[in-house]
Design a protein that fits this description.
Blueprint lengths: L4 E5 L3 H12 L3 E5 L11 E4 L2 E4 L9 H9 L4 H4 L2 E3 L2 E6 L5 E5 L2 H11 L4 H23 L12 H8 L10 H8 L3 H8 L19 H6 L4 E3 L4 H13 L3 E3 L4 E7 L2 E7 L2 E4 L2 E4 L3 H8 L9 H4 L6 E9 L9 E4 L4 H9 L10 E4 L14 E9 L7 H20 L3 H4 E7 L1 H8 L16 H4 L11 E3 L10 H14 L1
Parallel strand pairs: 1-2, 1-13, 2-9, 6-15, 13-19
Antiparallel strand pairs: 3-4, 5-8, 6-7, 10-11, 11-12, 14-17, 14-18, 15-16, 16-17
Bound molecules: flavin-adenine dinucleotide.
Length: 489
């Protein structure tokens, strides 16, 4: 057991998970959060009797959450319940094709064979390829610290280097999907997984074709009380373990003695610590909390392209639409044009792919009787100063026209109330540089190697967790970053 003191900057999911892991190891842990509530991007919106999960809506790998209860000697199911989805998502194409992604493999194959020109063989080939990549990268890149090029001198790193070709880094996700599928519906279906970490399938390496494996092999889940209940359950667990949370407490500075972090400064007060862990976006950690030490900034890492951001409309809807499920995708007719607009023109495409998440389908009390809570999201570029007011107004009109046409229903008339989240809001509410939702993008084959490491190479006693550092964004990877740092300590 250790009596060392750890301070954590930010109560995002990775910060909370790190707090739990270190409290279990005997550290005295204190978390400082700028906002009035914990969760960061994983928040909630409540309006006129409707409740919405504000950010993440798809839960994969819930066992990483269970694990936090297990290591604390608690039975996870008593504190946090979730169910596996039989239908992962419903897909609506512009040519009127509809696909239901069943979790059951045979049922899904049947669905594809019935509604597209694809053969089950192609799905099996894709699944085998995805599984193969997962087996290669999981032990080397996901479950352990990755320290850049010097990894080549470790046993695991050298093995990964030898396997580089097998990781399919030489072509893009889209090229790989085109080589497997004949039918464009399936190419678009599998290209979309690039957006799970805010990337572009036309430039991101085919290694990212590992992502469907997490959803299709391990499953998609829904927490019984919605996504925000993950945060409530984990903060309760952390408190039980003695972690102290300070809200409305923005950290202004990481205090250094030479090249060693010795604490933080909050509201003018210095809090001493043996270890400082930043769950804050790594770009702002350096540029705000370590701005007096430009020589210690990893400039190349910080200069990388950011992941895409999101525009979300939270709509209270006055009707129940039986055609929709918990997760629904309305694809654009021209996917390439959509990604070109996001990544090259840094703007919003006129026919965006629209994602609708409706938690009231499984948790009816999230909406009043006879109503539904729609979380309507499109992928948009990170904030580089676009005219967001004009873009949002245009996007809203385009989304309503698209949904009304696909669902044969005047959706605009069903909206009872609305809240909007755009890249500027994501940036200001969670200090995520440019409002990107997954840190840096994975749009080139070196991106995975160039993410900021979990331990500072320059500053002693300084560690990093969360979606902007290794191994990446999204709830499962954020939870793995917490595990890596707890093990490193
Ligand atoms: C719209 C949207 C949809 C998403 N969909 C999914 C999904 O379906 N599935 C999925 O797995 N992931 C999804 N994600 C990504 C996922 O939400 C993130 O990867 C994850 O929640 C990031 O957690 P984090 O621990 O890195 O911290 P964050 O959530 O970024 O939180 C960081 C915290 O640090 C605090 N902070 C920052 N600066 C300071 C400071 N100076 N002092 C004190 N506190 C500070 C912030 O206030 C914040 O609370 C989505 C994200 C968004 C926005």
């Amino acid at each position: 057991m250790s009596s060392k003191k750890v301070v954590i900057i930010g109560a995002g999911i990775a910060g909370i998970a790190t707090a739990i892991r270190l409290a279990v190891k005997g550290y005295a842990v204190e978390v400082f959060e700028a906002n009035a509530t914990p969760g960061g991007k994983l928040g909630e919106v409540i309006k006129d009797g409707f409740r919405f999960d504000a950010g993440p809506s798809l839960l994969t790998m819930p066992e990483y959450i269970d694990d936090l209860f297990s290591i604390a000697g608690k039975e996870a199911a008593k504190y946090f319940q979730y169910q596996k989805l039989d239908v992962t998502c419903k897909y609506f194409y512009e040519d009127s094709t509809k696909l239901t992604a069943y979790a059951d493999k045979e049922k899904f194959e049947q669905e594809i064979v019935t509604h597209t020109n694809e053969l089950a063989d192609a799905l099996q080939k894709q699944a085998a390829n995805s599984a193969r990549i997962y087996e290669l990268i999981n032990p080397v890149f996901l479950q352990r610290a990755f320290k850049g090029l010097k990894e080549i001198f470790t046993k695991e790193g050298f093995k990964a280097f030898l396997n580089l070709k097998k990781l399919d880094t030489g072509r893009t996700m889209h090229q790989a999907n085109k080589s497997i599928f004949e039918d464009e519906h399936l190419v678009q279906f599998y290209d979309r997984y690039a957006t799970y970490n805010g990337s572009n399938p036309y430039t991101a390496p085919a290694t990212l074709n590992v992502i469907p494996h997490l959803e299709q092999e391990f499953g998609a889940y829904f927490p019984a009380e919605g996504m925000y209940s993950i945060i409530i359950a984990l903060v309760d667990l952390a408190r039980m373990l003695g972690v102290k949370f300070n809200y409305n407490s923005p950290v202004d500075e990481i205090v250094l003695n030479g090249k060693t972090a010795t604490g933080i400064k909050v509201k003018g007060e210095v809090i001493d610590a043996d270890v400082v862990i930043a769950n804050m976006d790594v770009w702002f950690t350096y540029n705000k909390l370590l701005k007096g030490y430009p020589k210690l900034h990893p400039k190349k890492v910080l200069a990388q392209e950011r992941s895409s951001s999101a525009l979300v409309f939270y709509w209270g809807i006055s009707k129940k639409l039986a055609r929709l499920d918990l997760h629904n995708i309305f694809f654009s007719a021209d996917y390439k044009a959509e990604f070109d607009q996001i990544w090259q023109q840094k703007t919003i495409y006129q026919d965006p792919t629209v994602y609708i998440n409706i938690t009231s389908k499984l948790k009816p009390k999230d909406a009043p009787q006879g109503c539904e809570n729609w979380f309507v999201m499109i992928n948009v570029p990170a904030n580089t100063g676009q005219d967001w007011e004009a873009l949002i107004a245009q996007a809203r009109a385009n989304i309503l026209a698209k949904l009304s046409s696909r669902l044969n229903e005047n959706i605009g008339k069903l909206i009872m109330n609305e809240t909007v989240l755009d890249p500027r809001g994501i940036e200001s509410k969670t200090s995520s540089y440019q409002g990107s939702i997954y840190g840096t993008s994975s749009n080139n084959k070196y991106a995975a190697f160039n993410r900021h490491a979990n331990q500072s190479a320059q500053i002693n006693n300084l560690y990093f967790v969360g979606g902007s550092v290794h191994p990446g964004g999204g709830i499962p990877l954020c939870l793995l970053s917490a595990k890596i740092v707890a093990e490193a300590l």
